[in-house]
């Protein structure tokens, strides 16, 4: 039985992972002051409505969604697309995914925005202070100033926009739960989610153009099938 991912797949997946590392560095190296006040001026404390109370069971569920189900969902989308529609369609997803991160980098560098849990009194930083060993992990890997835009929103939406046939509704349901987790856990503002979704859609719409440009340059590693799908 052939493995779900081969060396070529891993090389494609490595590209957005490298770009993600660059995005993290852009946030860490940003010399600009936090502009959380601007986001707060836009939406106020509305996000507190999504954390009406904190309960251990709810926290466990949303932490599992945020840290475990989310990356599994992103990887599953690639594998399912490749099996159902071929590697070229999976590469469309990789292009959208990568572009969503690329267009987010200027925001992380020039307009750093803090998480809701450390700005609003009415929102607890659940992910960072109420989850035992996960607290230390998150405080080590999260810059706490990379909220705008939400990559969890953007990348989950990228997966849903490319959802394999027959899984569209389930895919968007997962994306909705991921978005809810970022609000409950005291991470993102509604503005973060809206911008992340918008950038994902723009990247999705640009993907055929990007693939076409690569094809004309002879640089597309997976030319789309002539018959279409």
Keywords:
0% strand, 229 residues, mainly alpha, 9 helices, single chain, 67% helix
Task: Describe this structure in a few short sentences.
The chain has 229 residues and is mainly alpha-helical. It is 67% helix and 0% strand.
Could you walk me through the main structural features you see in this protein, from its secondary elements to its overall organization?
- One of its GO terms (cellular component) is membrane.
- This is Phosphatase PAP2 family protein.
- InterPro entries: Aur1/Ipt1, PAP2/HPO_sf.
- It comes from Halorubellus litoreus.
- This protein has one domain.
- The two termini are 25 Å apart.
- The model has no long low-confidence stretch (mean pLDDT 91).
- It is globular and about 55 Å long.
- It has helices at 7-29, 36-43, 56-85, 87-110, 126-129, 133-141, 151-161, 168-184, 190-216.
- α3 (56-85) crosses α4, α4 (87-110) packs across α9 and α7 packs across α9.
- It contains 9 helices and no strands.
> Biggest sheet: strands, sense, closure?
none
Helix content: 55-70%
Beta-strand residue fraction = under 5%
Assembly context of the chains: single chain
Gyration radius from CA atoms, angstroms: 18 Å
Mean pLDDT: 91
What is the H/E order?
Answer: HHHHHHHHH
> What best-fitting shape do the alpha-carbon axes yield?
globular
Number of strands: 0
- The number of helical runs is 9
Low-confidence stretches: none
User: What is the terminal separation in angstroms?
Assistant: 25 Å
Structural class computed from helices and strand pairing: mainly alpha
Q: Supply the number of structural domains.
A: 1
